[in-house]
Amino acid sequence: MVVLAQMLLWALLVVPVCGAAESAAGVRTVIVGGDRDYPPYEFIDKSGHPAGYNVDLTRAIADVMGMKVEFRLGGWSGMRSALQSGKVDVLQGMSYSQERSSEVDFSVPHAVVNHAVFARKDSPYVSSLDDLKGKTVAVHRAGIMHDYLVRQGVGGKLTLTDTPADALRMVASGRADFAVVAIVPGMYMIRELKLSNLVPVLRNVATHRYCYAVKKGNAELLSRFNEGLAILKKTGQYDAIHNRWLGVVEPQTIDWWTFAKYAAVVVVPLVLLLGGFALWSRTLHRQVALRTADLTREIAERRQVEEELRLNQQQLVQADKMAALGVLVSGVAHEINNPTGVILLEVPILKRFHDDSVKILERYYEENGDFSCGGLPYSRMRQEIPRSLEKIQDAGKRIKRIVADLKDFARRDETDCNEILDLNAAAKAAVRLVEPTIHKATTRFSAEYRKSLPRIRGNRQRIEQVLVNLILNACQALPDPERAIELTTWHDVFRNQVVLRLRDQGTGIAPEHLSRLTDPFFTTKQDQGGTGLGLSVSAGIVKEHGGNLQFESNGEGTTVTLTLPVYHEENNA
């Protein structure tokens, strides 16, 4: 008997091995089809195995019904065709529609799928599907929303994709305006694929029952899945699977016994103690109100922190770009130094040669009269050559000075604000750096640097960065070159500060924008490539130096006043 039992046990272990559609013991393998890329409902995991809510539910049904199943996940349109051709026996997740019911038979629903419209965060507001007309809409090919959108008249500019993830990627990259995807898979894929610029802009545009589907007329197989699903709901296995992947969607029913039990425990004592109930109710309401206020505050603080993190990340990206630009400027300045050095080295030699040779040329001129030299009469060249050599030498010196200013400005800032510096010198260096922009913007630039200006303590490179930003903003505000820019420095004896004032005759600043000029990423020049970081960074630098940056505008121009404290050596002994 023991040997016979062992033989029977071995036979039972051999039967479940996957083989043809039907095993040696007559237990037919049910081929279950599904979408390979529809998480969290059904998908191929990183190990190459079927996973998801549908897969776990099908396995549980197979266990309770004694069925043997084999999963085949692929493209959704291909799976629908495979069901009709008999290559698969059942699709484990298919949204119900009246049109589809003429092709397949549906089980009782095992989930409810809500669909949403996804778009980039900077997309315009959408209130209904009518707003999608005329837009490029990405949708899963052969999915339920493909059929639905065509019926709703949004099929004109539909872009069909192989998977819902492809539809979301198209929107994230800007190749489509909107994507219509089920809300749960959509949020899941946004998180997994890190498509952080996508949000659902219109929720619950359509709700569909989610069922098993078999080929028309296969009532026997459909009844087995219906029966297995009913068993799982009674035993609680369905709730565990549903909650694990999707969370609780269907409200739990309360039976009469539970209701009576709670009535006996809660309602009867409360009726007997009406006065105590009133006091308890007021206390509960107060606690709920306090807790609600706490949660609201926590949510607001979390959103503020998230927004600050996003702004900091964008500032880091911009700072990295500026650092790369500084390296580029340093390299270019170094390359310019080489030819400039040759000019400054060779011009004095040419001047000495001219001084020595002019005696011979003058003697020849006196004896033979005027003659051609370099294509021009010598009587003219004798005056032009000295002036040309002086101009070349002055230009070379100017190039060398500008290159030195560029290298100082672009040099990596590794010092604290402990330099003792002259605001006039910093202002002159900033003007030299942006001199081409000034000449292009205005013919009426003036600068008045008061003499004997007291020194300040700070970082020269950062102060120059502030002044460059202010001058560039003033240039960009001028509508034509006839408008003026005035720069003035002086010492405010009463407040013991040095002051730099920059006044332009530009278009001015709207009153509602004055208070936001130094906010990060606030800009009125987006069409000109403005990032909104220049004045924000400048204000931070000035504050770091203990100074103040003030803006005034009357609608016909802007005045920027920079004040910095005077450095006193005795205070730092």
From TrEMBL:
<dbReference type="InterPro" id="IPR001638">
    <property type="entry name" value="Solute-binding_3/MltF_N"/>
</dbReference>
<dbReference type="Pfam" id="PF02518">
    <property type="entry name" value="HATPase_c"/>
</dbReference>
<keyword id="KW-0597">Phosphoprotein</keyword>
<keyword id="KW-0732">Signal</keyword>
<dbReference type="GO" id="GO:0000155">
    <property type="term" value="F:phosphorelay sensor kinase activity"/>
</dbReference>
<dbReference type="InterPro" id="IPR036097">
    <property type="entry name" value="HisK_dim/P_sf"/>
</dbReference>
<dbReference type="Pfam" id="PF00497">
    <property type="entry name" value="SBP_bac_3"/>
</dbReference>
<keyword id="KW-0175">Coiled coil</keyword>
<feature type="domain" description="Histidine kinase">
    <location>
        <begin position="331"/>
        <end position="568"/>
    </location>
</feature>
<keyword id="KW-0808">Transferase</keyword>
<feature type="signal peptide">
    <location>
        <begin position="1"/>
        <end position="20"/>
    </location>
</feature>
<dbReference type="InterPro" id="IPR005467">
    <property type="entry name" value="His_kinase_dom"/>
</dbReference>
<keyword id="KW-0418">Kinase</keyword>
<dbReference type="InterPro" id="IPR036890">
    <property type="entry name" value="HATPase_C_sf"/>
</dbReference>
<protein>
    <recommendedName>
        <fullName>histidine kinase</fullName>
        <ecNumber>2.7.13.3</ecNumber>
    </recommendedName>
</protein>
<dbReference type="InterPro" id="IPR003594">
    <property type="entry name" value="HATPase_dom"/>
</dbReference>
<dbReference type="InterPro" id="IPR003661">
    <property type="entry name" value="HisK_dim/P_dom"/>
</dbReference>
<dbReference type="InterPro" id="IPR004358">
    <property type="entry name" value="Sig_transdc_His_kin-like_C"/>
</dbReference>
<feature type="coiled-coil region">
    <location>
        <begin position="295"/>
        <end position="322"/>
    </location>
</feature>
